Amino acid sequence: ESLSSGDDDLSTNAFTPSRVESKWSDTTSYVTKKKLHSWFQLADGSWELTTFISKSGNEVLISLSEGKVLKVKADDLIPANPDILDGVDDLMQLSYLNEPSVLYNLQYRYNRDMIYTKAGPVLVAVNPFKKVALYSNEYIEAYKRKSVESPHVYAITDMAIREMVRDEVNQSIIISGESGAGKTETAKIAMQYLAALGGGSGIEDEILKTNPILEAFGNAKTLRNDNSSRFGKLIEIHFSETGKISGANIQTFLLEKSRVVQCSEGERSYHIFYQLCAGAPGALKEKLNLKDVSEYNYLRQSNCHSISGVDDAEQFRIVMEALDVVHISKEDQESVFSMLAAVLWLGNISFTAVDNENHAEPVVDEGLTTVSTLIGCGVEELKLALSTRKMRVRNDDIVQKLTLSQATDTRDALAKSIYSCLFDWLVEQINKSLAVGKRRTGRSISILDIYGFESFERNSFEQFCINYANERLQQHFNRHLFKLEQEEYIQDGIDWTKVDFDDNQDCLNLFEKKPLGLLSLLDEESTFPNGTDMSFANKLKQHLNSNLCFRGERGKAFTVSHYAGEVTYDTTGFLEKNRDLLHSNSIQLLSSCKYHLPQTFASNMLSQSEKPVVGPLYKSGGADSQKLSVSTKFKGQLFQLMQRLENTTPHFIRCIKPNNFQSPGKYEQGLVLQQLRCCGVLEVVRISRSGFPTRMSHQKFARRYGFLLLDHVASQDPLSVSVAILHQFNILPDMYQVGFTKLFFRTGQIGVLEDTRNHT
Ligand code: ATP
Ligand code: MG
Q1: CA-to-CA dists, residue 674 to 438, 524, 666, angstroms
Q2: Does the predicted model carry a pTM greater than 0.90?
Q3: How much is the CA Rg of the chain, to the nearest whole Å?
Q4: What average pLDDT does range 642-666 have in this prediction?
Q5: 172, CA 20 to 30 Å: which among 256, 292, 351, 759?
């Protein structure tokens, strides 16, 4: 009998975080002694399954595929699992839980369209980039009846529902992964299951219809993903006492607004712009003076107008229908489209120099007049707002003319603000429509679809915020998993203090400490009128260089040691993005418009600056309004989010992107491995490994190894027999603990016993 996956009490986890660990040679000698398969890393980084031939000293002769024979160091071999463990549906069932074995197991399943695998309590989902037959009603029914057990989003979601009812505790499903890994699709699959089980009132259809709306306004084609979410989202779905869906609430995080005015070659701005241009009915087109996409500067600049396989006009019809379903009136819909058209036309406003000091004024042309018509203001007011700036010097208001580049920035800032206000307003309307009535008695399940850890060639303010959020989420993840472990230990009465685990608290402190943390220093520098990205970078180096998670770099850059690896940030643009100023002129302009949306936007902007949620008021120079900095606002949102999540039982889904081509059937080991590290799947393993990952009940242990005993044991009870076995085999006291019902072992301890057992 070998260690099979059916053996549910038994799992020996021998895991190497990076290549070789200290106690590794024991296992290697075991493997070579038994002539087992092992993994060998080739020069290109890929792993190959090898067969042992012979050994002399520390050198081993192995055979690779196609009969190639190689002499390698024994230490370079990593044990592979026996064939019967190929494709197990929980990684924890692997006898050897090392990196190549995990990679191989996921790949084995992926090749057979089994895209879901468990890693203990975590669900790993590998993006198939094609339709897989896993989501039919039959599947939903099967998971509901519990007649299938294979890992699935449905299974996790089902567990969330059951635990919500059983424990009377709110639940959360936390989905992470890098761009294109499948988070948004996974969130929709979970919602589909919830709607199927908790449907009936009709509100579930409304909830599902929020997806096409939010994707139209918040997703865009990027180089990584044709449908990339450019915001984070938490949707909280409420259930009545009878288990039916009673309503929902959506919270969004940090929409990437720079995309509205600027996007790189091959990418697009938000889908809705292209959908509107392609799909607006004739009358609407005329009313908004809509032109072809190629006529708008904001859309034209990236040389990418369409997405293969996507019909923007058809999508527009779907979005309009969805807007109806969530009770956005036709009138409001038209106002929304007017704002979108206004943003597009803003981008077409150009400026001319009016004096030899490079001061500029907008050209009075179709762009300018159309914007003024669409937002409902006079042409003169618009001109003024785009070419001047009011400053308060001592007690006098003075008017300053803007230079060409200042005027362009003001125009773009206005376009970005209108768009992000529109996005927030839409979410607010949707929330009103989905609102749970006053009788909010039941429970909820929240689904979090948020950007994963990002590390690019060049990392800016956005990556800084995103990675900070991931650092927080990772801590939540670690603590939860650790708590689960801890509970099991305590339940069985074993000594928990012998398990240590390092938190990422140090890195979080680097961000959050006051007054000398990254966020505080950023805000402080942002308040100085003369602060620059360079002075910010210097300040960081001055105050944080002793911090182990921080390293100053040459020029304007700095490096942070995140849990998922080091990231170097370039501070260029940090201050401007963090201040995110909209001149008071622009706000005044919007508030003076005759239509209700611009007015609402203006008052939302003002109220936001007056009522800080968290942290000190952020002041800017001149007559501009006081405003929370972007990072402070984000931090506030994040804290709120964490508080909400703390009160739930979490379920984690980690999405993995198997290749960078968005194409099916390609599984790149290096890429997958890097994601497994970043999203903490290997961390799960590490946490369990840091404790006593192998567990076996006293009965089972006594039954399995009792016959190896040389001396007679007076008492035949399983505990006494077990203890006698441990003594006979000299298992060191540090290597195991005896619980009430189970024995707990450190990694690899069972190997010797198994070996003896198999040779007896
Ligand atoms: P981003 O962070 O950029 O928003 P994401 O993680 O949300 O990325 P998705 O948009 O969910 O990624 O997925 C990208 C694409 O992968 C989808 O448009 C779809 O084509 C494909 N995909 C993801 N999950 C599945 C699935 N379960 N079945 C089939 N295709 C999928
Ligand atoms: Mg997404």
Answers
A1: 47, 35, 16
A2: no
A3: 30
A4: 96
A5: 256
Which residues, listed in sequence order, are joined to residue 736 by a DSSP beta bridge?
745
| Residue 238 amino acid letter | H
Q: 179: Cβ below 6 Å to ligand 1?
A: yes
Which of 197, 195, 21 minimizes the C-alpha distance to 746? 21
Burial of residue 663 (CB within 10 Å: 0-12, 13-18, 19+) is exposed
Q: From CA 51, how far away is CA 73, in angstroms rounded?
A: 14
Ligand approaching nearest to the C-alpha of 654:
1
Cα distance between residue 667 and residue 357, in whole Å: 58
CA of 495 from ligand 2 middle (Å) equals 43
Active site residue 347: no
Could you give the C-alpha distances from 336 to 116, 154, 339, in angstroms and in order? 40, 36, 5
DSSP string across 299-362: HHTTS----TT--HHHHHHHHHHHHHHTT--HHHHHHHHHHHHHHHHHTT--EEE-STT-BEEE
Q: How would you classify the pairing of strands 443-449 and 171-176?
A: parallel
What is the predicted ipTM?
1.00
Q: Is the CB of 228 under 6 A from ligand 1?
A: yes
Residue pair 422/536 in contact by the 8 Å Cβ criterion = no
Ligand 1 pocket residue status of 135, Cβ below 6 Å: no
Question: Does any ligand 1 atom lie closer than 6 A to the CB of residue 128?
Answer: yes
Q: Which of 129, 451, 657 to mutate to test the pocket of ligand 1 (most atoms within 8 A of CB)?
A: 129
Runs of H (alpha helix) within 492-561: 505-512, 518-527, 533-544
What is the token pair recorded at 398?
Answer: 């003075």
Distance CA 99, CA 17 (A): 7
Mutate to test the pocket of ligand 1, among 117, 126, 185 (most ligand atoms within 8 A of CB): 185
Task: Give the DSSP letter string of 429-465.
Answer: HHHHHH---S---SEEEEEEE-------SSB-HHHHH
> Distance between CA 446 and CA 466 in Å, rounded?
20
SS3 assignment for 10-42: CCCCCCCCCCCCCCHHHHHHHHHHCCCEEEEEC
Tokens of 48: 């190959």
pLDDT digits (tens, 9 = 90+) for 499-528: 666 678 999 999 999 999 999 999 999 999
CA distance 336 to 665: 41
Written as six digits, the tokens of 533 are 């990205």
Tens of pLDDT, residues 21-42: 333 444 566 666 666 789 999 9
Give the C-alpha separation, 379 to 307, whole Å: 36
Asked if 447 contacts 173 with a C-beta cutoff of 8 angstroms, the reply is yes
- 3-state DSSP call for residue 285? helix
Q: How far apart are CA 326 and CA 128, in angstroms?
A: 31
What tens digit of pLDDT does each residue of 229-274 get? 999 999 999 999 888 999 999 999 999 999 999 999 999 999 999 9
CA torsion 588→594→595→597, rounded to 10°? 10
185 lines ligand 1 (CB under 6 A): yes
Structure tokens at 276: 């509107």
Q: Left (φ > 0), alpha (ψ -120 to 50) or beta: where does 223 sit?
A: alpha
- Rounded to whole angstroms, the Cα distance separating 706 from 739 reads 18
How many Å lie between the centroid of ligand 2 and the Cα of residue 57? 53
Q: How many CB atoms lie within 10 A of CB 441?
A: 12
The CA distance from 586 to 593, in Å, is: 11
CA distance 543 to 531: 16
Buried b (16+ CB within 10 A) or exposed e, 500-533: eeeebeebbebbbbeebbbbbbbbbbbbeeebeb
Residues 296 and 293: their CA atoms lie apart, in Å, by 6
